[in-house]
Specification:
The protein is of the alpha+beta class. Helices cover 28% and strands 25% of the residues. It has 6 helices and 9 strands; from the N terminus they run E-E-H-E-E-E-E-H-H-H-H-E-E-H-E.
């Protein structure tokens, strides 16, 4: 990114997102580290436990699949990429998660153990990952936001209760 102009981005947050300490400062650092050709970067999320995060840098990982997008950054090119993929099928956060899964239907996904036939967890060079990712999606290693979860007894059947029932999911916040 050295010497490259920044790209237009938009930060999108759920209405119940809770920002973590030093959100602005941490977001600025994350934006500096993101490759200039990124499409999407999740700031708060959940993922299936079976969907690994591939190490990219100290602040960023490459998700194989994410759900429940509490907050994210979308670049102008990312918006164009998603628009070219319309129509949305199902909830938008699940649809975006499927776009991430599509990055791994190839030999690199097999090497990483997240492709259709792969089971090993090898290393792939970052420059090679950048070449094969159709939807250039990243995620903050340390989340910048989380979803507010209810604490009352009645919340087990409302908004906060689903987290306790989804035992095969890892939550970022």
């Amino acid at each position: 990114n050295e010497g490259m102009d920044p790209v237009p981005v938009c930060v999108i947050l759920e209405d119940d997102a809770v920002l973590n300490d030093r959100f602005s400062e941490r977001l600025s650092s994350l934006l500096e580290e993101l490759p200039r050709d990124f499409h999407f970067c999740s700031l708060g999320y959940s993922r299936p436990k079976a969907a690994p995060m591939i190490e990219y840098s100290t602040r960023l990982s490459i998700p194989s699949c994410l759900w429940y997008l509490t907050g994210y950054v979308l670049s102008l090119e990312g918006a164009r990429h998603l628009i070219s993929s319309l129509p949305v099928s199902g909830p938008v956060d699940s649809w975006i998660g499927l776009k991430m899964c599509g990055n791994w239907d190839n030999q690199f996904g097999d090497i990483m153990g997240v492709g259709k036939g792969g089971t090993s967890h090898g290393k792939v060079a970052r420059k090679d990952l950048a070449k094969i990712m159709k939807f250039r999606a990243f995620a903050a290693v340390v989340p910048l936001c989380a979803q507010k979860v209810g604490t009352s007894a009645s919340s087990t059947m409302t908004r906060g209760g689903w987290r306790h029932r989804d035992t095969d999911i890892t939550y970022s916040g």
